[in-house]
Amino acid sequence: MDLAATARERGIKYFLIAFADLFGTLRAKLVPAAAIAQMQRDGAGFAGFAAWLDMTPADPDILAIPDPDSLVQLPWKPEVGWVAADPWMAGKPVEQAPRLVLKRAIAAAAAQGLSMQTGVECEFFLIAPDGTAISDPADRQAKPCYDQSALMRRYDVIAEICDAMLALGWHPYQNDHEDANGQFEMNWQYAPALITADRHAFFKFMVKSIAEKHGLRATFMPKPFIDLTGSGCHAHVSLWRGDENVFADADGDLGLSALAYQFLGGVLGHAEALCALTNPTVNSYKRINAATTTSGATWSPNTVTYGGNNRTHMIRIPDAGRFEFRLADGAANPYLLQAGLLAAGLDGLARKSDPGTRLDIDMYTAGHTVTDVRRLPLNLLDALRAFEGDATLREALGAPFADAYVKLKTQDWNAYARHLTPWERETTLDC
Ligand SMILES: [Mg+2]
């Protein structure tokens, strides 16, 4: 697609050429349509050190080459076109760039004739602009999930976002108030992994932008309020060979094929390491492993287990032909979430992994009765160490990526550890 011609046809005045860095932050240049032809060819220049990419101030420019297939006109400002870009440096792709990491995983699947379809369920809070409280003081039910009145008090925001997704052809199909006061979820149709990842990245930008327009603030922070349910980002996964869903098998247990169970086994097998990607912040570990919330359940997993249509496990099999990965949270980098899932699943296929027996128990009330299950990491550092020790994921996602990610995220952990918290003072002053 010729972006200059498209700009003329669709009235686009500016392009945002954007890439997600290792922390999932979107970095962009705003480029006038008059300059887009050259940018489409040569890329937009950035100083890599200024983003989270593990580069130095001495490194040459990175050039972000836009992927025209990802073009989205901002629904709230159609004169601006957003394009996801892939960073290059010194004539080579930047191997640690998350979108390129995902593309590598997709290529590994494609080499076996396979492609992953995935849909994400991004939960978020609408809060006051200063970030201290939810935005709707009347949203106070102890069990607020699906609260019709609280949902409709935010109709103007939710409908504007949903209208935008309808116009973009994402096929949204439902919106609800979620299980925490002030929390919402909007669902659109699943798609190939790269398309979903681009949409996921754009969705977060769109929700924040439209919320701001309405005088609110949207946050995808995993656990912004300690006593309320956190924001997950569940992913529904299936693997396809051409038009055939190879996870589906009418004769298989719960409608899943032997291959699906191998893939699932791979995801379970790498769970602790995957946490570093799917639960990438200090705050993430206050959502998983959490104490019961005011609604009665955290809805997040504590253990590396799978079940049938049962939301208390890391993986749920809700229906034939797919499974739901319930571990990831709102802070997950959209590209690394899918790359990690696919790489872990493909390893499961390579090893013909056995996921073990399904657990059909309520893990929240009966979890203590099973002693031989693995527990999820209790903090970011444990997850990073698990990721660092996972040679298979390192190989699949690329050593430059794995090294850069662990280095920057360990710095992140160390920055956190240098904080003196009120809890420490309260519990340690009289030691
Ligand atoms: Mg949900």
The main pleated sheet reads as: 10 strands, mixed
Secondary-structure content class: alpha+beta
User: Helix coverage percent of residues?
Assistant: 25-40%
Q: What is the gyration radius calculated from CA atoms?
A: 21 Å
Structural domain tally = 2
Quickly name the level 1 CATH class of the largest domain.
Answer: Alpha Beta
Low-confidence regions = none
Q: In percent terms, what proportion of residues is strand?
A: 15-25%
Architecture per CATH nomenclature, i.e. the level-2 architecture of the largest domain = 2-Layer Sandwich
Average residue-wise pLDDT? 97
Describe this structure as you would to a colleague.
With 431 residues, the protein is an alpha+beta fold. It folds into two domains: 3-94, Roll (Ubiquitin-like (UB roll)), CATH 3.10.20; 104-423, Glutamine synthetase/guanido kinase, catalytic domain (Creatine Kinase, Chain A, domain 2), CATH 3.30.590. The protein is 35% helix and 20% strand. The chain has helices spanning 3-10, 36-42, 98-110, 148-153, 155-168, 193-213, 258-269, 271-278, 334-350, 363-366, 380-388, 391-397, 399-417, 422-428; strands spanning 14-20, 26-32, 44-46, 62-66, 72-73, 80-89, 92-93, 115-127, 172-177, 183-188, 191-192, 217-219, 233-241, 244-245, 306-307, 315-319, 322-325. The strands form two sheets. Strands 8, 9, 10, 11, 12, 13, 14, 15, 16 and 17 form a ten-stranded mixed β-sheet that branches. Helix 6 runs antiparallel to helix 9 (334-350) and helix 12 (391-397) packs across helix 13 (399-417). The longest helix is centred in the middle third of the chain and has 21 residues, at 193-213. Bound molecules: magnesium ion. Magnesium ion (MG) is lined by residues 121, 123, 178, 185.
